[in-house]
Amino acid sequence: MKKRKEKILSRIVSFVLAVCLVACVCPLDVTMAAAANTADELTLTFPAKIVNVEGTAKIVSSIEGATFVSSDEKIATVTQDGMVTGVSIGRATITATVDGESASVEIPVVGENLLNSRGKNNGSFEGGNASLVKTGLATAAASTADQFWWVPINSATSADSAYAMAASVVSGETALGSGRNMLKYSQPTAPTKNDQIAFGIAAVPNVSGQQWGAMKVAGDKLYEFSGWVNLENLTNPPALAANIYYYNESGSNALTALAKSEIESASAGWKYFNTFPVDTSRIENFAHTYAHFRIATTTQTMWSGDMYFADASYHEVGYDKLDFALTTAKSQWEIGDVVATSVKHYSTTGTEIRSVTATNQTKSQAIPVTYASDNEDVATVTSDGTISVVGEGTANIIASATIAGKTKYSIIPVNATSDTVLDEIMLSAEKTVIKKGVSVPVSVSGQMSDGSITNLGGAQITYESLNENIAEISEDGVVSGKEAGDAQIKVTAVLDGVTRIAYMNFRVTVPLLKSAAIDLEEDRMIVGNTIKVIVTAEMDNGLAADLQNAEIIFDSSDESVAVISRDGMITAKAVGTTQISASVTIGEIKKEAYAVLEVINDPDGITLELAGGIVNAGSTVKLSVVSKKTPVRVSYKSSDEKKARVLNDGTLIGISIGRVKISATAFFEDGSEKNAVTEVAVVGENLLNGRGVPHGSFAGGKESLHPGNFSDDVSKVTEKAFWCVATNNGSYAQSAAVETGATGISLYDNRMRLSRTTEADNKELCFGTTSKPTADGYQWGAIEIDNGRIYEFSGWMNLDDVTNAPDMNVGTFFYDSTGSTQNSAYLTGTRVFLPATISGWTYFNTNPVDLSSVENFNNQYVHLRVMSGKSNWTGNAYFSDFSFHEVEYDKLLVTTDKSTDNLAVGTTITANAKHLSTSKREITSFDEAGKKKTVIVNYSSDNVDVATVDGTGKINVVGEGTANITASATIAGKTNYAVIPINSTSNEVLGRIEFSDESCVLIEGTEFSPELTAYMTDGEIADISADDIRLSSDNEAVVSVDEKNTLYAVSEGNANVRATVTLDGVSRATNLSVSVKRNSLSNAVLLTEKSVLEKGEVLPTELLAIMNDASAVNTDNYEITYTTSDENVATVSSDGAVTAVGGGVAYIRAAQALAGLKGVNDDETTGINIVARAIEEPLRMIAANAGVEGSVIINKIAENDADFGYNARTGEYVHMLEAGVIDPTKVARVALENAASVAGMFLTTECAIADIPEPAAAPAMPAGGMGGMM
User: pTM, whole model, 2 decimals?
Assistant: First the structure.
């Protein structure tokens, strides 16, 4: 301010001097206007164009030190530095004053920025690059909750080949300031054809539902999309437009390009755009819509360079103004005049509103307007707004229209007289937004037909509220707010017999919900724990909100990680991260709050792990307990021993197909206990174990590998060949081998290696079973399967040692009995893809397919294949632990697009069904012709007075109460059910019921009482008794139920048992899948303490034969024959004792594993060479002790294999075991480990202290005298 005064004083002094100089030559009649012209003019600008409710934007003043004031603080407030905060939708005038000068700017306040989704301001790209989806629009459904913007680039898919080359979020200067995030959309070089620019939100509806970017909006409100675009760094910039696309609940595109805003591309700098608001209120069944907006080219060019997009907003606006005007201006009305009028409707931002109707949703339609004359003796008006003057006098032509629930009025005064009369009246008030209970007077002034202003002192003025429930007005013109809403005040003034009318809109507010927040007791939870969410909210008057009558809806973005009850109780289920949200609604205002929750395992707890998560029926796997401390003892338990049994040492035995929970309790020295649970899929027997050889673990060795082609005739494939590695083809690997080493589930077992040493283009990493049909029949690896069953192929692969690894995929080919493939879609249906970037041992599992409906396909054969893309790959790829096995239709999983609790009547819910196998993979089904089909799901409601459902799963809530929607489907002869509980009350009622397991296995002739748990809608466990439960079976020939709800296994087969629990008049249902089996021998397994033996070591085994009821068979009375698949590896005695073939030359055989091995640096390579030479030393010493040259002996032994060695006692080369010479390899291994340990310690010792040897003493002097001398 001081500088301002000094500046003014300086100008005054300069002016006085100028006057004095001019006075010497001119008359002294200089006016002070000259001084005024030299002063700075106060001007205000508002660069942001709009401000959102709860948002802020800065006014720029040309003069510092101005004071600011808002015309209506219920619409916008302003600080003394010019920072405007939006309060409610409307228009407010901000006035600045400095040194007696004033200037004003009108501020449009729009609704909250709806781009601020899930806690991030996506309008300012707060999510960074993680918020960008760079794939095609149709595939953006695969995006994550963090991804909001769809920005297709050329490298994404072939369908997107006409877009930019790169997209990223960068920081820089935008129209609203520096250091702001913006989207950079680039094409560094010009294309050879016309390209387009297109990006928007990832929100197009698809079969899986709305994508993450979807903006749900109300069909009875108005919305606009605005933002800034900069094209100045583009060459050949295309013409652009911003568009909003609206979709209805079912995903149909109901509106196309009505909400368009053209973007100027010719000039430089940041360009603002604002789309047209569209009134959709007259479209049927469009009450709730989804909005998708994008910026796209209207004319493509060969553009290049960088374009930028910033500061976007998608927001609600209000119906602000009805502009009713004459198409031809009239200075004087005369009888006989016929004049047309025009009407336009404007939003809060001054943008014209467009509208559509149900009959034509692609073109802008005229918004219905009602016209009336208050004096038809003077003027009439037609339904299209044409005014006709029919008599002398005055009249008021009134136009009114309603948009988005808000009515506006506008008046054209008609004066068909030559007298000076009252022409119009004007209304004003200190504020037009008032609180409930607050009053404000309305001032009325008039203008005469000659343009003069009158105070209406002699006029008769009457006041009327057209919405008395919202606001009332007294006889003297004082408006008082009664309830929240908009009210039109009508004022009529009569002066000298002339009547004029005016309207003024008042908004009455009550304290509104301003914000909501949630507080987690902790932002990190341990699996199994529970915490309570604390919700708080603030009203716009600064006081805390009373949440007693508020509607609060909780949600977890990933319910596999944590679930939250309707009263805010979180239960942690599995390791991961989820977003907890609370939606708080008070009145018509809804606010959302978010918090990120991380769920971890107990750091002091244990985890129970099983590689791959499956076990074959008839096979064993070892469970691993991971713990910081070593437990003293671990106990195990299976939830259903008729599916899987677990032994005390953690050996898991698969018995029958199904899912089972395995629990472990670890006991520690300090007396503490820790528990862990894992769910295991028990799948069918491994069908790769054909002809007595477990080919899934590559036990057939090198003889099981066929080097020829997949199409080779049977005559070219040996009987032992099971895997076709095609190393002779030239297009695949150059060599293949079966070796031992680390695998996907073991530290030491068989694995297959495919290798290339020569780099060449377009090579594949491919192999499969020798099972493809040829002219001579099926090859030896063919596996015959049952068309009525479902199968999967799983295993492990490791590409760490592969350079330029290709993308991998695994699939199954099905052939009929004639050898022809029925449909290539079968392969597509099963195929699973793995990127080249996989690290370490990676598990794969193909997708199951249901072919039971395909005609003439009763006898099938399967061909398994591991495939890849083409690349110039080299190195070694490893594969292990393959399994091809049967699975079952395990679960009908039905999800809904919204919560089914506390529903309002009229709500529509969409149910989506998935069909999962035993391994939780989605099943693909095929029809009679071999085409992919959608499995028919049957839906029904047990209370159609509350909820109905159609054949597509669309649920309509038609009444208050509760209902159960049941879904059922049949695949491969097995039927599964799912129940959707519906609650259209606000009461705490019975919410759902659950069996302890979704399925069980019973033995024929046994009985079983299943366990049920019931939950209230708040998540609490309900207190139910046996009298509340009713069970029934859909197949009593398999399972029957008595009056005590006990299940009886009648005969072999499948059945579904339905449970219904009724509590306080509310019934809930669920289903239990039951499989009944005869109590026959299920399988037998050979148990050993370990699977890796030292050569020469003897290991006893235990045979465990298991019945279907999980009981063990006493084998003492049975004759048991033990055999070995390769006596060169191990022999087995008649009592099952296994002896590992070995002895002789362990170190030399071990040294062969180091051949060609290179370290990561020269030092490591030197160390490897030292070890390789050192482990030859024992044999060299033996040879030296026998008097022969050690290097000759070593070379001879190295040329041979197995137990070929040198008998130093006899001087002969022999097979050591036959000669009875045993090399104690365990001792040798321990010796080598100890030697390496000592060497490592010595090499890393900085200082070693030792005694210096004493010098040798001088020889003693001989006795005196010299011999022989006298």
Answer: 0.57
